[in-house]
Design brief:
The chain contains 13 helices and eleven strands. The protein has three domains: 89 residues, Phosphorylase Kinase, domain 1 (2-Layer Sandwich); 192 residues, Transferase(Phosphotransferase), domain 1, CATH 1.10.510; 110 residues, Tetratricopeptide repeat domain (Serine Threonine Protein Phosphatase 5, Tetratricopeptide repeat, Alpha Horseshoe). The strands form three sheets. A six-stranded antiparallel sheet has the order 1-2-3-4-6-5. By secondary structure, the protein is an alpha+beta fold. Helix 3 runs antiparallel to helix 8.
C-alpha cells in the first residue's frame, strides 16, 4: 500500500504509514482544505469482498460519530475510493499505552499511583460517556488507549463495539475481544455489558501499577467451576500509596458482574472520594459533557448472489462456438456491469446514510433529513434506512411521519420487534416521549 504515499484522496493527502494490523493500515494524512493532520484507517483490499467486514467497518464509523468526547478519538469522515474503504479520524500525537508499558518494563519502573489513576480516570470518563449512549467497547486494552504528550488518554477502536440490547456479530458461545483483558463472562462466551468494560479497565489499571495482570486466563476460567482466585496484591511490587486503591480493584475485578461497579459513573464517584485532588488533580471534578444522541443502528445488507455457471457441449461446430463465445463475453460484461452498478448504488446509499448521521449530530437538521431521504431513494430495499428516518422524525416531534416510515420498516423486516413496539405505541396515540421509546431527544 506504499503506492498511496503522497497521493491526495478525497481531500486528504497521505503522508506516511504509522500502523498496520489484521484489518488494515493506518496512515498519517493531511486534510488539505483545513491543513490539519488526520489519521486515515484503510480496510485491507482483500477484505472488501466480504460484506461482514465492510459492515463492521461502517459500524465503527457510525459508532465513533456518536462519541464526541475529549477522551475518545473522534471520527471526521468515512468514504470509499477505488474500492478502498477509509475512515478519517482525529490524529493523536503520542503513543499507545502498550508502548508505554513496554518502555516501563525495560526501565523496570512502572506508573506511580497518580499517573495510573489519572489515566484510568480519563478512560472511565470515556466509558461513562459511551455507556450513557448504550454503547459498550468489548475490546478495551492498552493497545486501544492513546497517551498524548500532554498526559491526555484517548480511547480508540470501537470496531467490535455494539449497542446495549442491540444485535451482535457473534453467536452464543463465541468470544469477542482480547483474551488477556476479557472479563470472566466473555472468556466463557457469554454476553458482555458495561461491567465487562469496567473489568478490562481494572486489569489495565492494575497492570500500570504492578507491571503484570492480576489474574491469568486459567484462573478466570476455573471460576466457572466454583474456584475463585484471590486478587494478587504484593505491597513490595506496588508503588507507594497504592493501598488506598485496593477496595477499588476488588470491586472492579470482581469475578461476578453483579459484584462490580454497576456503571462507570459509580467508579468515577468512588475514585473521587478515595483519591481526591491529591492524586486526580482538579480535572477530576470537571463534569464530562452530556449530550445524548440516538443509538447506533446496524445496517444489514443482503449478500451478493453467487454466479451460476453453465457447461456447453464440446461438439458445437466452429461457427456456433465462436458465436456462443462472443455472446458469453457480452452477457458476462453485462452481468458484471449490473453487479458493479448495484454495488455502487449500495455504497452511495450507505454514504448518504452515514453523512446524515454526521449532519444530525452537528445540528444540521435540514441537511440530515435530505441525506437520510437520499439513502432511501438510492436503495429503498434496506429496512435500516427507513427506520433511521422514522427515528429522525420521532426525535424532532413529527410522529405522523415516523409512523409512515416505521410501517415500511416492518414491511421490509417483520422481525424488527423494537420498531414494532415503537409503532404500536405511536399508533395507540399514547403520550410517549422519545426517551421512553429508547430515543435520545
Amino acid at each position: 500500500m506504499s503506492d498511496l504515499i503522497g497521493q491526495e484522496i478525497a481531500g486528504f493527502r497521505i503522508l506516511r504509514e504509522v500502523a498496520r494490523g489484521g484489518m488494515g493500515v493506518v496512515f498519517e494524512a493531511e486534510q488539505v482544505r483545513l491543513g490539519r493532520p488526520v489519521a486515515l484507517k484503510m480496510l485491507h483490499p482483500t477484505l472488501t469482498v466480504d460484506r461482514e467486514f465492510l459492515r463492521r467497518f461502517e459500524r465503527e464509523a457510525k459508532t465513533l460519530a456518536l462519541l464526541n468526547h475529549e477522551n475518545i478519538v473522534n471520527v471526521i469522515d468515512f468514504f470509499e475510493h477505488d474500492d478502498r474503504y477509509l475512515l478519517a479520524l482525529e490524529f493523536v500525537e503520542g503513543e499507545t499505552l502498550t508502548r508505554r508499558l513496554r518502555r516501563c518494563a525495560r526501565q523496570r519502573r512502572f506508573f506511580s499511583v497518580g499517573e495510573a489513576a489519572s489515566i484510568a480516570f480519563q478512560v472511565a470518563q470515556a466509558l461513562a460517556f459511551a455507556h450513557e449512549r448504550r454503547i459498550i467497547h468489548r475490546d478495551l486494552k492498552p493497545d486501544n488507549i492513546m497517551l498524548t504528550s500532554r498526559g491526555r488518554a484517548k480511547v480508540m477502536d470501537f470496531g467490535i463495539s455494539r449497542t446495549v440490547g442491540g444485535a451482535t456479530d457473534t453467536e452464543a458461545g463465541v468470544r469477542v475481544g482480547t483474551p488477556d483483558y476479557m472479563a470472566p463472562e466473555q472468556l466463557k462466551g457469554q454476553a458482555a455489558d458495561e461491567r465487562s468494560d469496567l473489568f478490562a479497565l481494572g486489569v489495565i489499571f492494575y497492570e500500570m501499577l504492578a507491571g503484570s495482570r492480576p489474574f491469568s486466563q486459567a484462573d478466570l476460567l476455573r471460576s466457572d467451576r466454583g474456584e475463585h482466585p484471590a486478587l494478587r496484591w504484593d505491597e513490595s511490587v506496588m508503588p507507594p500509596g497504592s493501598g488506598r486503591l485496593r477496595p477499588i480493584f476488588e470491586t472492579l475485578l470482581a469475578l461476578e458482574p453483579d459484584q462490580r461497579y454497576p456503571s462507570a459513573g459509580k467508579l468515577l464517584e468512588d475514585m473521587r472520594e478515595r483519591l481526591g485532588r491529591e492524586f486526580l488533580g482538579d480535572e477530576a471534578w470537571t463534569t464530562p459533557p452530556r449530550q445524548p444522541v440516538p443509538e447506533v443502528v446496524e445496517q444489514r445488507e443482503a449478500k451478493p448472489e453467487g454466479i451460476r455457471l453453465r457447461s456447453w457441449s464440446r461438439h458445437l461446430i466452429a461457427v456456433g462456438a465462436i458465436l456462443l463465445l462472443f455472446a458469453g463475453v457480452v452477457l458476462y460484461h453485462t452481468y458484471q456491469q449490473g453487479r458493479f452498478e448495484e454495488r455502487q448504488r449500495k455504497i452511495e446509499a450507505m454514504m448518504a446514510s452515514f453523512q446524515g448521521f454526521i449532519a444530525d449530530s452537528q445540528g444540521r437538521v435540514t441537511e440530515a433529513e435530505t441525506l437520510l431521504l437520499r439513502a432511501i431513494d438510492v436503495d429503498p430495499t434496506v429496512a435500516d434506512y427507513w427506520r433511521d428516518l422514522g427515528d429522525f422524525y420521532l426525535k424532532y416531534g413529527q410522529p405522523e411521519k415516523a409512523i409512515s416510515y416505521y410501517r415500511k420498516t416492518i414491511e421490509l423486516e417483520p422481525s424488527d420487534d423494537e420498531t414494532a413496539r415503537r409503532l404500536r405505541s405511536l399508533e395507540a396515540g399514547t403520550t410517549t416521549t422519545t426517551q421512553t421509546l429508547g430515543m435520545a431527544p
